[in-house]
Amino acid sequence: MVTPALQPWEIVGWSPEQEQIIYRDWGRFFTHRQQLDTAVHYYNKSLELKSKDPKTLYFRSRCKRNIAQTKGALDDGKTAAGNISPITGKLSKYVEEVMGDYVVLKSLRVMPWKVEFINEVYNTLALAHVDSYTLLEDVLQTHGKERLLRLLRMPTDKLKDIVEFVFGDKSTYREADAPNYDQMAYQKFLARLQKRLIFTKYPVEKCYLLHEIARVHLKQSSFEQCCSWARKAIEASEHSNNLLWQLLSIMLIVKAHAALHKLESGKEALKEAMPIVKRLAIPKLCSFIDFCHDLNEQEIALKKSSQSMDSMRKRRSRASISSRNSSQSKNGSENGDSAKATISTARASDGAGDGV
């Protein structure tokens, strides 16, 4: 039996995942060597093993752009943006890196399909965010105001983020003047978005930037700032007639009000979102908004009932205190009258004794 001729590297029993990464790395190597046709060949072999790998699609998109295959580059870019999971948060980061560092610097002469590409990418990102609003099975297992927060995928327990100091454990100790790297990254990313907002020319990009600024404020628990920037995003979405970004901005306001437990304001925001959802005609999204509205109504009813119970308890306590005070005053007056009577009788008896 004749064995097929193998390349030296094929003798090793690589797994399909390892082979896919090897082909992708070879494609990047030949891209740097400006051997673009060979690079596309290895990107294709990598995609044969994993057809929806976003990194390989992104690299092949850049490679096709350099060899003037604009249609293929656009298709690969859209497929790469649509295949990143929005749950892990990689999609927004990927879009920001590509659009903020690369596409924004290209002119229409270099990238004649820039407008179409920008619209497709940002609308794909908006659809991915909308798809994240789905009903969860464990929502009904939670109680109280945590139920709505859990449905909106908001953190329900902030105390878990606090690290308790343990004597002798350096990882739990923090210097008073130690830099807060999370806050520094937050400020840096916020400044980047605001700088891009100044020079943006496209309505959909403006909607995206305003929404991202509001979302960053929401992550940092700056709820008032989140609502303010989300309102600006809603206005920009209305001017550009973009229902997706308008709905996403309203949902940020709903999340902020839910975190602050402002149920009435959240109810108004959900009412504002309902006509937009009906115009989009997405059944799952309609059921999600209806369920959010029902949960919010239940929370309002529970809040009113608890307030009425508290008011009744206060009234009863006030009534008991007033009755107690009145009884004490009545007893005091009776004791005073009896004391006066005894004093008068004693004086009368003393006068009678003197007369005798």
Describe the structure.
- With 356 residues, the protein is mostly helical.
- Among the domains are: 16-83, Tetratricopeptide repeat domain (Serine Threonine Protein Phosphatase 5, Tetratricopeptide repeat), CATH 1.25.40.10; 106-133 and 181-320, Serine Threonine Protein Phosphatase 5, Tetratricopeptide repeat.
- The protein is 72% helix and 0% strand.
- It has helices at residues 16-32, 36-49, 54-66, 70-82, 90-101, 114-131, 146-151, 181-199, 203-219, 223-240, 243-260, 263-280, 283-355.
- The longest helix has 73 residues, at 283-355.
- TPR repeats lie at residues 20-53.
- Residues 305-356 are annotated as: Disordered.
- Keywords: TPR repeat.
Jot down its keywords.
single chain; 356 residues; mainly alpha; Serine Threonine Protein Phosphatase 5, Tetratricopeptide repeat; 13 helices; 72% helix; elongated
Write the layout of secondary structure elements.
Blueprint: H1 16-32, H2 36-49, H3 54-66, H4 70-82, H5 90-101, H6 114-131, H7 146-151, H8 181-199, H9 203-219, H10 223-240, H11 243-260, H12 263-280, H13 283-355
Helix pairs in contact: 1-2, 1-3, 2-3, 3-4, 4-6, 5-6, 6-11, 8-9, 9-10, 9-11, 10-11, 11-12, 12-13
CA-CA gap between termini: 154 Å
Structural class: mainly alpha
Cα-atom radius of gyration: 35 Å
Low-confidence runs of at least 5 consecutive residues = 352-356
Strand content: under 5%
CATH class of the domain at 106-133 and 181-320: Mainly Alpha
Q: Per the principal axes of the C-alpha atoms, what is the gross shape?
A: elongated
CATH architecture of the domain at 106-133 and 181-320: Alpha Horseshoe
CATH superfamily of the domain at 106-133 and 181-320, called what? Answer: Tetratricopeptide repeat domain
Stated plainly, the CATH topology of the domain at 106-133 and 181-320 is called Serine Threonine Protein Phosphatase 5, Tetratricopeptide repeat
Q: Give the topology string: H per helix, E per strand.
A: HHHHHHHHHHHHH
